[in-house]
Write a structure and sequence with these properties.
Elements (H helix, E strand, L loop, with lengths): L47 H11 L6 H15 L9 H12 L11 H20 L25 H10 L2 H13 L3 H5 L6 E2 L4 E4 L10 E4 L2 H8 L11 E2 L2 E2 L6 H9 L9 H12 L4 H8 L32
Antiparallel strand pairs: 1-2, 2-3, 4-5
Length: 326
């Protein structure tokens, strides 16, 4: 349902978006978007809002469903008034430009790769509308920004020590555990005691909570066990807490301030996972073992750490040294 101002009713089933009031969004672009002509010969009544509703319903089990909802909330002022057939290249360009001007919490402009995630979501929904739902005759060309090679930022042991020394007590065990296991942010934050076997030093992430939708077995080394034992008795269900309440958000001001005090820049919470994987490769863990430990569904993600594994090529050049004629 669309109100008099042309903005969809966010209370409508299937379009309950998450609030994002903390985001600084450039609003000048929103008021300048004219309603374009339809881009097909087919006159239809299906709107962007209709497509979003069905998309959210069909992808409700998707691992990134929550992230999609946040993106769709930001896109709503740009696309919410439009018929699907009115979303053309000009509209996409305006969305692309506006996204590039959004400021993050750190006051920096949104990166090209982040803008690409928004554009890719729009493209996925439009393709679905064309191919599966037959609501659209054609999908406009959506040009993405060029992205640099995959970013791998990891801590040196010295940087890790500096960071641990600066962390507040309630984050210290969390970070120690993450450096020891390499689990994703959401899996660490929501870790339950029922997911852990302290006797056999083993933990697991269920398929429903895994990004790859496959269960992840987590071997708990001495560092991970030490971090867990310090949290025993603080909460009956959740492992990591603050003042008796579960830690749902780990990417906090306390975390960012600790990074500043430690003199560590260009480092995100997810980079703890990169650090874990990089340390493993540097110390001889084979790529195929790392893939299983990290819960990656393919070797593509693991290959970004290949250059750190000296064991892969050690001695390989000598295999043909006697073949070349003297």
């Amino acid at each position: 349902m669309i109100n008099r101002k042309g903005i969809p009713n966010l209370a409508q089933p299937g379009i309950r978006f998450l609030a994002s009031s903390k985001r600084k969004i450039v609003t000048e672009e929103k008021s300048n978007i004219d309603l374009p002509a339809q881009n097909t010969k087919v006159t239809d009544s299906k709107t962007w809002t209709d497509a979003v509703s069905l998309w959210l319903e069909e992808t409700r089990m998707k691992a990134t469903h929550g992230e999609d909802k946040k993106k769709l909330e930001w896109l709503e002022p740009f696309l919410g008034r439009l018929l699907l057939s009115q979303i053309n290249s000009e509209v996409i360009t305006q969305v692309r430009q506006a996204s590039s001007k959004v400021l993050t919490r750190n006051g920096l402009a949104r990166t090209p790769s982040t803008t690409n995630r928004y554009l890719a979501l729009v493209r996925s929904i439009l393709i679905k509308a064309k191919d599966d739902w037959e609501w659209l005759e054609r999908v406009p060309k959506i040009k993405l920004f060029k992205e640099p090679p995959g970013r791998v930022r990891f801590l040196s042991p010295d940087e890790a020590k500096r960071l641990l020394d600066e962390l507040p007590e309630h984050l210290l065990a969390v970070i120690r555990f993450d450096l020891a296991t390499g689990l994703r942010l959401s899996n660490v934050a929501k870790l339950k005691w029922s997911d852990i076997d302290l006797v056999h030093q083993h933990a697991w992430v269920g398929a429903s909570d895994s990004k790859s939708k496959k269960s992840i077995a987590v071997d708990l080394n001495m560092d991970a066990m030490q971090a867990l034992k310090g949290e025993l008795g603080k909460h009956p269900v959740r492992v990591f807490t603050y003042k008796g309440k579960p830690l749902d958000n780990l990417n906090t001001r306390a975390w960012r301030n600790a990074l500043k005090r430690a003199g560590i820049s260009d480092f995100r919470f997810h980079d703890l996972r990169h650090t874990w994987a990089s340390w493993h490769r540097q110390n001889g863990t084979p790529a195929h073992e790392l893939q299983v430990m990290g819960g990656w569904s393919s070797t593509v993600m693991v290959e970004r750490y290949a250059h750190l594994g000296k064991d892969v090529i050690k001695g390989a050049s000598k295999r043909i040294e006697s073949i070349i004629p003297k």
